[in-house]
Amino acid sequence: MQDHAGVSRSAAVVTAFIMKTDDLTFEEAHNKLQAVKPDVKINDGFVKQLKLYEVMGCKVDLTSADYKQYRLQKIIDKYPELQNLPRELFALDPMSLEKTDDVLYRCRKCRRSLFRGSSILNHVPGTGPIAFAHKRFTQTLREEDQTKCTSYFIEPVQWMEPALLGVLDGQLLCPKCRSKLGSFNWYGDQCSCARWVTPAFQIHKNRVDEMKHLKFSSVRNVSS
Ligand SMILES: [Zn+2]
Ligand SMILES: [Zn+2]
């Protein structure tokens, strides 16, 4: 008799295999497996991973926002002290890049480059009633129409590291001019659209400017 962890792990591996080979969702593959082995159990951690695997089309795409968000959620379990976090968790500081074809976001006040477009972890906007549950239904509908995300939720960037270590939540300040850009919370925060994002590293959209400098670099290439 195997121990429960072993049973759960092998059931998860088999489920992942069925999902990929038979092109099934997690639920379908799990039902199929249970039809053959009714006593099979997969623990919640594996279920979460398998659902993520489904979202990513049965591939592990290390650059996908879903994967990055999932990895960030695991950090608080693995490093409850929030010390000695793995280096690769932090996106490269755009100041350390010679050039990038990615969209850049700069501090509106001092123009320092803060993060790249690829660092934004998009989420599906939440539905109004969660955030505005205390309001009357008619109001809720009208509010929902203008519901928008007023912040970018991004992966942590290298310049944030000193602010993030050992602290559960706090402000995010521009590393150059110290103006307030947003906030972070390892246990998550609610976006203005009502969606909870865990953990949350949010930058207010009105504190940064989007710079699409793709054209400038190609102009330079032509003239050189
Ligand atoms: Zn949102
Ligand atoms: Zn600044």
Report on the architecture of this protein:
The chain has 224 residues and is α+β, with helices and mostly antiparallel strands. It has two domains: 4-60, Protein tyrosine phosphatase superfamily (Protein-Tyrosine Phosphatase, Chain A, Alpha-Beta Complex); 87-211, Metal Binding Protein, Guanine Nucleotide Exchange Factor, Chain A. Helix content is 37%, strand content 16%. It has eight helices and nine strands. The strands form three sheets. It has a four-stranded antiparallel sheet with strand order 3-8-5-4, with no helix packed on it. The protein has a three-stranded antiparallel sheet with strand order 2-1-9, with no helix packed on it. The protein has a two-stranded antiparallel sheet with strand order 6-7. The chain is elongated and about 65 Å long. Residues 130-146 and 216-224 have low confidence and may be disordered. The structure holds zinc ion (2 copies). One zinc ion binds next to loops. One zinc ion (ZN) binds next to loops. Residues 5-54 form the Dual specificity phosphatase catalytic domain. InterPro entries: Dual-sp_phosphatase_cat-dom, Prot-tyrosine_phosphatase-like. Its EC number is 3.1.3.48. Pfam families: DSPc. Keywords: Hydrolase, Protein phosphatase.
